[in-house]
Amino acid sequence: MEIIDYKKWSNKATEWGSNYLLDLKNKPVRPNIEPGSVASLLPNTPPEEAEDPELIFSDFEKIVPNAMTHWQHPRFFAYFPSNASVASIVAEQLVNTIAAQCMLWQTSPAATEIEEVMIQWLRSALGLPKYFSGTIHDAATTATLSAVLTMRELALNHKGLEQGLFEQKPLRIYSSAQTHSSIDKAVRLSGIGQNNLVKIKTDDNFAMRSDLLEEAILDDIANDLKPAGIIICIGGTSIGAFDDVKSIIKIAKKYKLYTHVDAAWAGSAMICPEYRLLWKGVEEADSIVFNPHKWLGAQADCSVQFLSNPTAQINTLGLRPDYLQTLEQDEVTNFNEWTIPLGRRFRALKLWFLLRAYGLKGLREIIRNHIKWVEELEEKLNSDSKFKVITNSRLALFTFQYVPVGEDANQATEELLKRINNDGTIYLTQTTHEGKFVIRMTAGQFYCTREDIMTVYEVLKKLT
Fold this sequence. Notes:
Aspartate Aminotransferase, domain 2; 40% helix
């Protein structure tokens, strides 16, 4: 393909994409295929000669779509959704065409400055104070690792970057047992080590117990260990647990500990003022992460980290050799110094497009509808003796079991989940909660409707 061919094949891809999205509701959400079946259709070696674009596109149509789990399907209720609104898709097409490497202001002035403004827009949309700045990462995992590395360096007076962790007191990071595995990964990769992630027990509402948190901090200090930071859970992946932000940050400030709020999924709901009680006190946090690609319609990857003061993170992650200097421009923002990779994509454009294309009013309506419809589905399961709701709706997430009389509920629920996903009409996933195998039900796909969500109950009735 040459540049002259770009228009033809871009138009063909757009036409295919439009037909795909319009017909998606008629497809199974997840393919019923065996591992290795796609690879077996591909040659073992790359071609020596250029191939006809017609053949390439034809092979794509034959091989790829029917072997994909369709994350944009309106009946995708697994994990958390990874949304791609039409406005975001169009923006990404433009970004892919420009194909900029947005590591410095001078390599991408528009990308840098639009990112700065989009952080302001989102800060305002979520009701955060004006002193928060921030940046866009690929995923919440990266944002959390950035925060943990910052915790490490603050605790070591920035000696870790040059001296390493040798001969230093063991550092301690605190979180609840409801936090995502990305917290574990961040602590491992930071060099602090899994054994130094202290998971605090939760209360009856599955929130971190602040009294036990303070006890753990005091015990560590008494044992010559060094507390470094606290990670606060807002909308845990398993059951949607929420920590009491205000009480935890009060303890953090008492012991001068850096705080990072993981609101990867639930943070999007905070564009609705009525849900902000769920993270009351968040304005005192040092770092907050949320993923617009989970519930706001910005396709992956797009994870926003707010920072009350970015200096500590820039001092931790920033590195400016001579060849990255911006000559005669000392005051510009170079976002590569705020994040782990040097290379950066122009992620802010899709935020600019979608916030303008739907407005906060339209996005709030989508989120409120998802929450309302999920609660309605939960009520249906509550009224059916075949099912038992295990954890109630937290925003748009609840869990349940299949409890047929005389059968083991864990086994029966697992077998039901297999039947559900083999059926293909909907897609659900599982978690383990207090020893119970439960099915998670969460909605958030950008174009799903009440009918799509109520289909869950129809499928459950059909398969039981």
